[in-house]
Amino acid sequence: MMEPRIQYAKTTDGVNIAFATAGDGPPLLLMAPTPVTHVQAAWEMFPQFHALAEHFHVVWYDSRGSGLSDRDAIDFSMDAMLRDLDAVVDGAGLERFPLIGILDAVPIAIAYAGTHPQKVSALILVAGWVKFSDWRNQSPANVAEEALRSGDWTLYTETLARVLLGIENQEFAARYGAYIRECVGPEAYRSSQAHMETWDVSALLPQITTRALVVSNRNNRFLSPQVGQRMAAGIPNARFQLIDDVLLLQLPGIVTGFVGEGREAEATPDLPSGTAIILFADIADSTALTERIGDAAFREKARDLDAALRTVIRENAGTPIEGKLLGDGVLAVFTSARQAIEAALACGRAGDDAGLPLHLGLHAGDVIREENNVYGGAVNIASRISGLSAPGEVLVSETVRSLARTSAGVRFEDRGEQALKGVGEVVRVWAVREGA
Q: What is the pTM of this model?
């Protein structure tokens, strides 16, 4: 079983926030219910984390006052919660990602998505609420919970887990009660409940522009399905799903399906069929690097660089191909030779800064779009040209040089005609040098 990597990020008000990562796929940020969070214990307690890590690079964290974060910081105002989240997004190097909010984390997720639309690619809100009155209603479970909360901490957590949450598996319920006590102390927990009385994100619902899914549990004893229905109705084009799953064992399948739908819808229109400028990048001497620093460290550095390169490519109007991951090469297509060269040079600088120099090659030709990938002989030529480059160097074909020589603001050094493996004719190759 893989183990999560636990790190720390510091908020703008000086609080140390513990966050964990696991898995090698595209990024996914999961917010567990505040303040019942403990990054290590959650990994050991809930199989959902393992299932998600099979498909995503999962990031989760402990809010202030809980888990492995600073336990003496018990400001649970919405501003403080957003500072925690901002620190984790920056610390984990996340650029654009699906965001999951569960239970009391749902209002925080809504507030973040409503104010950071450029960051959140998909929003999944599970068994949560928008304003405190949704949560603190006069249901029998709420009345009992409020009466017990100020009393004995062990009795409260055991009753919450064994009775009020509706967990039928009593062995798991006993473990969950112990888990709550490991996550947070009674003072911080009661402080969080007092602060939540001020939370109301209903005004932000119409501002959410990303794809959204609201999931409600028909057996939730604290929140009726109508709370989730009103939430979904307030978010433009949100989808609503009703489940019968107190322990949220269905969550990984729901998340994978919803996020996957969006990725296919976003990727397909951007990939051109016809002529394109093709960028291929690969880490130089990755085998030796892996042997020197270890497989886990190499994969972590390569994943971070992969995210940085995709950002650079998008900033230069390119389309990174999602099916290609660094180590297997980063592939991107452009409609402009100038922008492709600028992106390649920026990628080279990013690789040098990360200590992972890149082979970089550019070619122009016809590509064939198929689902979320592009194919064709031109892609193969771009890959072969990148393999000829020195670490950190950008090589281009004669075709790319001809398209860009009057507009790219760079110089080209002739490297002569090269025989490329699998290519019938020799290709003239040029090295790009910055400065006209």
A: 0.61
Spacing of C-alpha 267 from chain mean position: 16
Mean of pLDDT values over 61-84: 96
Residue type, 85: L
The Cα 382–Cα 256 span in angstroms is: 32
Per residue in 391-428, pLDDT (tens digit) is: 999 999 999 998 886 666 788 999 999 988 877 788 99
Q: Give tens-digit pLDDT for 7-27.
A: 999 999 999 999 999 998 899
E strands, 156-309, in order? 211-217, 239-243, 274-283
Residue 31, SS3 per DSSP: strand
| Topology (CATH level 3) of domain 271-434 | Alpha-Beta Plaits (3.30.70)
Strand partners, 364: 277
Q: Which residue has the tokens 């002989």?
A: 377
CB 367 within 8 A of CB 273: yes
CA distances 356 to 26, 257, 280, 284, Å, are: 20, 34, 15, 7
Buried b (16+ CB within 10 A) or exposed e, 275-302: ebbbbbbbbbeeeebbeeeeeeebebbb
User: May I ask the CATH architecture of the domain 5-266?
Assistant: 3-Layer(aba) Sandwich (3.40)
> Domain limits of the chain?
5-266, 271-434
